Amino acid sequence: MGHHLEITMEVNILGLMATALFIIIPTAFLLILYVKTAGSEEAA
């Protein structure tokens, strides 16, 4: 039973990491695009 619990914990951690990546990567991408757009608008 203890071993099964360990496997479940590992899967949960991997799932949380994957979810975090799916949230962080697009957010960072949008932030970079926004900063570039805002910067170019200020320059122009």
UniProtKB/TrEMBL annotation:
Compartments, record wording: Membrane; Plastid, Chloroplast thylakoid membrane
A GO cellular component annotation in the UniProt record: chloroplast thylakoid membrane
Membrane topology, from the record: Single-pass membrane protein
Membrane-traversing stretches: 12-35
Listed GO biological process terms: photosynthesis, light reaction
UniProt xrefs under InterPro entries: PSII_PsbM, PSII_PsbM_sf
Pfam families in alphabetical order: PsbM
Keywords of this entry: Chloroplast, Membrane, Photosynthesis, Photosystem II, Plastid, Reaction center, Thylakoid, Transmembrane, Transmembrane helix
PANTHER family recorded: PHOTOSYSTEM II REACTION CENTER PROTEIN M
Description of how the protein assembles with itself and partners: PSII is composed of 1 copy each of membrane proteins PsbA, PsbB, PsbC, PsbD, PsbE, PsbF, PsbH, PsbI, PsbJ, PsbK, PsbL, PsbM, PsbT, PsbX, PsbY, PsbZ, Psb30/Ycf12, at least 3 peripheral proteins of the oxygen-evolving complex and a large number of cofactors. It forms dimeric complexes.
Family stated for the protein in its record: Belongs to the PsbM family.
The protein's role, per its UniProt record: One of the components of the core complex of photosystem II (PSII). PSII is a light-driven water:plastoquinone oxidoreductase that uses light energy to abstract electrons from H(2)O, generating O(2) and a proton gradient subsequently used for ATP formation. It consists of a core antenna complex that captures photons, and an electron transfer chain that converts photonic excitation into a charge separation. This subunit is found at the monomer-monomer interface.
HAMAP family xrefs: PSII_PsbM (MF_00438)
Protein name, entry field: Photosystem II reaction center protein M
UniProt source species: Medakamo hakoo
